[in-house]
Amino acid sequence: MKEIILVKYGEMALKGMNRSTFEDVLLRNIRFRLKKIGKFSYAKAQSTIYITPETESDEERDELLNAAMLRLKKIFGIAALCRALTCEKDFQNIAERAVPYLQDTLTAAKTFKVEAKRADKAFPMKSPQICAELGGILLQNYPHLKVDVNHPDVTVTVEIRDVNAYVHAAKEKGAGGLPVGTAGNAMLLLSGGIDSPVAAYMMAKRGLRISACHFASPPYTSDRARMKVEQLCEKLTPWCGSMAFYCIPFTEIQEELQRNCPEEFFTILMRRLMMEIACRIAEKENCGAVITGESLGQVASQTLPAIACTDAVATMPVLRPLIGMDKVEIINISRTIDTYETSIQPYEDCCTVFTPRHPKLRPVLAEIEEAQKEVDFAPMIERAIENAEMKVFAQHVSENQNL
Ligand code: ATP
Ligand code: MG
Known about the structure:
By secondary structure, the chain is an alpha/beta fold. It has helices spanning 11-14, 19-34, 58-72, 91-101, 103-108, 127-141, 195-205, 223-240, 251-260, 266-284, 304-311, 327-336, 340-343, 350-353, 365-373, 378-386; strands at 3-8, 40-45, 48-53, 78-87, 111-118, 146-147, 154-160, 165-168, 172-176, 184-189, 208-216, 243-249, 289-291, 318-319, 389-393. Strands 1, 2, 3, 4, 5, 6, 7, 8 and 9 form a nine-stranded mixed β-sheet that branches. Strands 14-13-10-11-12-15 form a six-stranded mixed β-sheet, sandwiched between helices. It starts with a strand and ends in a 10-residue tail after the last strand. Adenosine-5'-triphosphate binds next to α7, β11 and α14.
């Protein structure tokens, strides 16, 4: 049975964006995501991408289609997708093959309707006629069914295109959003916690290509903590595509802070230094923004005055997609994107190791700047950037198929 996948992108998503850029980037992302599972050919027409598995074996085709559907559901820019049967452009052929193809779906349904899309106006039957005749044939073969044009359990769609005709039942929802790469690049501050991976997912959904940086303070933070963060990068690649990951040595700066700065200012000074370094690396990576997983009021460093103190050192916009969200909402997303279980592994992060007992809830920028002047951080910042280790996470070869 010749089956393919139809990928639809919403016209809504295209608003304000050049169609060919949108299509090209989406197609490139799809090819990249599917290349590890097998050979496919691609075509596009009328807000649809046609993905055909290149194999003669029915069994292999089925496997390819299953694996591709799982991956495609995580690619931003896709509004809906479905498997579809390829038919010759001949009504008899369409009807004969649609009956067995739709067996499982129609047996499980009580009501249905047929929709036809006739892109090829030379096709001898008009859409209403296709619907009526195919509807009749399906009713004969599945006599328990009733037609319901308003709220059918199943909508059977027949698309008459240039070369072939396609039959499919319900479309599945895609990940939505904009194709990664259409909105530019951004640098994520990635801790090992629950929030920052969710922030990455949310901004990748708006079309940003994500790079990530993580501040590690060995020996206070362990190798396991770093491995956990790398695992988070791996878990993000199905959504974000390939990611450059920088691990930045932060021990020297944190020890210096501890020795020379008032304890109540630790957290805020640490965040300012992280922000400064992140912006520097972001500039190197051609990023137009940095992203954090902060949510207003969640902890002491996420009050409005604290955020103002951190932003004062940023050299580009700081995106905080979780700013108005509750922890429960954030956790729900992290479960859906499968980062939760990794995030809750108990390895210490550099923030937790150096948490002051009484952090300042309303830091005043002038005071913070004064405190920061006590130490000349500039050479340490340079060393941290110089000694950062970079690693690229592309799609995970052994990516769990049933995620
Ligand atoms: P998360 O769950 O993302 O760790 P959090 O609620 O623990 O967030 P903080 O520890 O205050 O809050 O961190 C706030 C944000 O600062 C994080 O979401 C992340 O963007 C950034 N951040 C914190 N620690 C690090 C780190 N070690 N490396 C890189 N970024 C960090
Ligand atoms: Mg944290």
